[in-house]
TrEMBL record:
Protein name: 2,3-dimethylmalate lyase
Enzyme class at the top of the EC tree: lyase
Native source species: Roseovarius indicus
Record-listed E.C. numbers: 4.1.3.32
Coiled coil (residue ranges): none
Amino acid sequence: MTGQNLHFRTRLAESIRAPGLTSIPGVFDMISARIADQIGFDALYMTGYGTTASHLGIPDAGLISYAEMLSRVTAIAGGTRTPLIADADTGFGGLLNLERTVRGYEAAGAAAIQIEDQEFPKKCGHTLGRKVIPAEDMAQKIRVAIDTRDDPELLIVARTDARTVHGLDEALRRGEVYAEAGADILFIESPESEEEMERICQSFDTPLVANIVEGGRTPVLSAPALAKLGYSAAIFPAFGFLAAGAALREAYTTLRETGSSHGGNQPLFDFSDFNRLMGFEDVWAFEAKWFQQNDKG
């Protein structure tokens, strides 16, 4: 069976701190996680939007619970070998809630935990109506997260959502506060131009992550362009579920219109390969070992 090895957090830290850009796909269920895991990325990003949508079918508006998110972290981290960055929203409440969240996510196998400075309940970072808590309250959350983690290689990603409502200057000020509080990675959410992205990268020595959402508020740039700006990593949280949604809509529309999958032009995952992806080879090996022994007995 799959699962993290003992050095997965160190591998992620080394990848983020190395020169160049680490491109990280968003995963939202075990199918997306296993496919991305096989492709060979340096890290995976468990998207809160995608997890909420796939698990509950509701908006990413602070409606999913800590227990529900923890169950997804446990499944994805336990079912893959690639270091996992896990979205923990606001920590699901105050400082005690955050302490519980860090302990739970770390025990579940996350390699990095992302927390943000929105008021609870939070909203998706590329939507309107977000409100942020005082910067010092968020800095205290970062200090609690650092004090709580048992493994110093568990990375704390500090995100600010101040740009959209309060402007870039306030977002940069908060980034400085969060870096001083000890955040390992800074996440200045939803800059609205390449010029703003350049200014962000020129403002910090702490590693920076870009959040690339197709159709969102931030320009979608190439990997070389993001690296040239100075980003250490880029997450693509929506790319997978937007692609999956488009493929499913096309496949189901064909099925509704024709009554069959016969003659469809949609690219399909080979069924035998999908069986292997889901681990059926382990089932078959188990049956071959134990059921044949019973037959002989």
